[in-house]
Amino acid sequence: MVQGTANWNTEQTEEWLQEYVDDWVAFYHNKIGDGEVASYIPELQKADPNDLGITIIGKGGMTISSGATDSPFTIQSISKVLSFIVACMERGVGYMLDKVDVEPTGEAFNSIMHLEMRQVKKPFNPLVNAGAITVSSILEGRTSDEKMEPIFELLTEMLGYRPAINVDVYESERDTSIRNRAIGYYLLETGFLESDLNITLETYFKQCSIEVTVNDLAQIGLILANDGIDPETRDEIIPRQVARIAKALMLTCGMYDASGKFATYVGVPAKSGVSGGIIAAVPPRVRDEELPFLEGCGIGVYGPALDDKGNSIAGIRLLRHIASQWDLSIF
Ligand code: DON
């Protein structure tokens, strides 16, 4: 593996960074220890555990892509960032922060226990299942398709194409998701839901089943890193305040009960999904040496073998390596 931080400078070409990243991806792609692909959604078991892909898109458009970049995968929990953003745009930030808190749980993403034990007035945060299902219930629309439409519109604006739902994954989760139904019933009993439970869950399963690539995640990450503005067109796609809250939530809650470690060792807002995707938004940083992507970048990673928290093992290792080589941390 290429070692050392070298002396990065602006003369260094895209090809040169590409060589480094290719090397790191080749090194980490089978470093999955005893990680396994998710099996509680049966359709996700078809993924190749050793796949690893990454795309990094910088503010000036510089793009580094390596490994399994063409393998589409379902967005899963990364969609929780998008549904929260859309709900804030529809209902206003004040309304949403009344309905879901912004505190990390320290529990698994699909925990029910903490809701009952702590007798909370609202779910802990929109990035755990209980919070995300509540957000799906708040999205405007009478049907799940109506609720999904603004999410697709936002994605189309960011990506330049309209992604699709992977129907097999959607049906696979819909037909097996006993725990999410349990969470849904608990939320119904406590009065947190604002729509019919079945429509809410249908929306939630659909948003999780949107198919993306690492390029898509990098592009979304770049827009978030840039406070909601597309750096190419200068269009404001997400209001600045909403983008900033989304990033704060990603940093504190995005990797679930591994968020503290991720903040310590990688140090950027990120969100994982159980199909193995990770999105990261790297804000611009000030350093007194030249480093790659100083103006900020978006990163998409895919590595379907997961650790016991539900995060991509090789994906986190690769991000940790890149963050230390390029000094990406916001701290
Ligand atoms: O609700 C679920 O269990 C999945 N659709 C999404 C969970 C997920 O992605 C957790 N992430 N690591």
TrEMBL record:
Protein name, as recorded: Glutaminase
Signal peptide (UniProt feature, chain positions): none
Catalytic activity, EC: 3.5.1.2
SUPFAM superfamilies: beta-lactamase/transpeptidase-like
Reactions it catalyzes: L-glutamine + H2O = L-glutamate + NH4(+)
Keywords: Acetylation, Hydrolase
Similarity-based family: Belongs to the glutaminase family.
Protein's gene: glsA
